[in-house]
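Input (D-3-phosphoglycerate dehydrogenase):
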Amino acid sequence: MANTSLDKSKIRILLLEGVHQSALDTLHEAGYTNIEYLKHSLAEDELKEKIADAHFIGIRSRTQLTEAVFEAASKLVAVGCFCIGTNQVDLKAATRRGVAVFNAPFSNTRSVAELVLAQAILLLRGIPEKNAKAHRGDWLKSAKDSYEIRGKKLGIIGYGNIGTQFSVLAESLGMKVYFYDVVSKLSIGNATQVNSLKELLNISDVVSLHVPETPATKYMFGPEQLAQMKPGSILMNASRGTVVDIEALAETLKSGKLLGAAIDVFPVEPKSNDEEFVSPLREFDNVILTPHIGGSTIEAQENIGREVAEKLAMYSDNGTTVSSVNFPEVALPSHPGQHRLLHIHENIPGVMSEINRVFSDNGINICGQYLQTQEDIGYVVIDVDKAYGELALEKLKSVRGTIRCRVLF
Ligand SMILES: NC(=O)C1=CN([C@@H]2O[C@H](COP(=O)(O)OP(=O)(O)OC[C@H]3O[C@@H](n4cnc5c(N)ncnc54)[C@H](O)[C@@H]3O)[C@@H](O)[C@H]2O)C=CC1
Ligand SMILES: O=C(O)C(=O)COP(=O)(O)O
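Output:
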């Protein structure tokens, strides 16, 4: 019988953006050795070349997986985003090609929440400015514009995993927490949901953005929202760089309206640590600028490395898609002594009956079958006696609506 299940040494994995060593260790332990590891992200042309023979790719927030990149990635089986956000991946392009995308939805949540809490305390005390002045030899000992965090109002925009963690930490220091979210959410602790962004901005001393990048959040924070903020308040953004209109923020800072700001993410970020960081915010001493390190702690990176690598290895070894961000989720048992067929198809009427006909017409007994569908695609996994894997694979490939089909031994 032809050896159709790929030998692990032939499965090529491209890891970009310096993902943690734990990812490499996890993949090695799972038997994957054909790994190219790069510390930086790649621009589209170079990426298209490198991805052409990759079966799996691991990225962080910087690498853009566009339609054109997927078009060049004819062997790609899955993408691992070693981070929370997946806005850098054209998920529709991935799904159309039957490429599963995984991420680490919780592993750096706490790191971001701790950072923004620390930034709020520093900004309320005017520390960034005092620190910058001290470095230049100026002694700014004064209580002017310095406040405790206790009793201040925190306005969280996007009350998801990070927003709620931040909410809990802030309350423990005596902040009063309000939040705005497009979805009605159960308040954690004593937080209060408000009905509009305007209402939130009108009452908050500290405003913090924790929304994903979506068409609705792109530049959701511009001149109008800055005008609605309280004089002397603070703006923090550790979500995505496109959420805040940076030019408008620079104008508002120039006017002296805000006490300060903390910005971790930018519309354009350097590709690597060797590139200059360019931003109109560089001139302001009362702005904390951090190089997109909200999730960059040893703890978070180590956990993310392991978590996402495990998801990739699991999908490769066994077909499990639990917690995929674009695929129907199927949790699968092991399949000793059997061949496992993974069939990804367009979710159109009649595909399943055609698939089942392949087995009945060819006298192939189905030992196990698992199916999940979502709006656009269906994912069916069929275990058969190992004598029939090759025949079934060939037949399944010609079923109408088939996007991709592979067999695992
Ligand atoms: N700076 C950094 O290093 C990091 C940044 N992030 C960013 O933070 C984002 C949030 O992360 P999580 O809290 O884990 O996501 P999440 O999905 O748990 O929460 C996002 C929340 O935003 C809400 N939301 C969506 N659109 C909205 C809108 N237009 N207006 C108001 N609320 C809206 C959602 O309903 C949800 O409650 C990620 O998508 C990522 O872009 C995440 C980790 C690290
Ligand atoms: O987890 C996320 O969404 C982040 O923004 C962190 O991205 P990074 O892994 O630091 O490029």
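The first strand starts at residue 13 and ends at 15.
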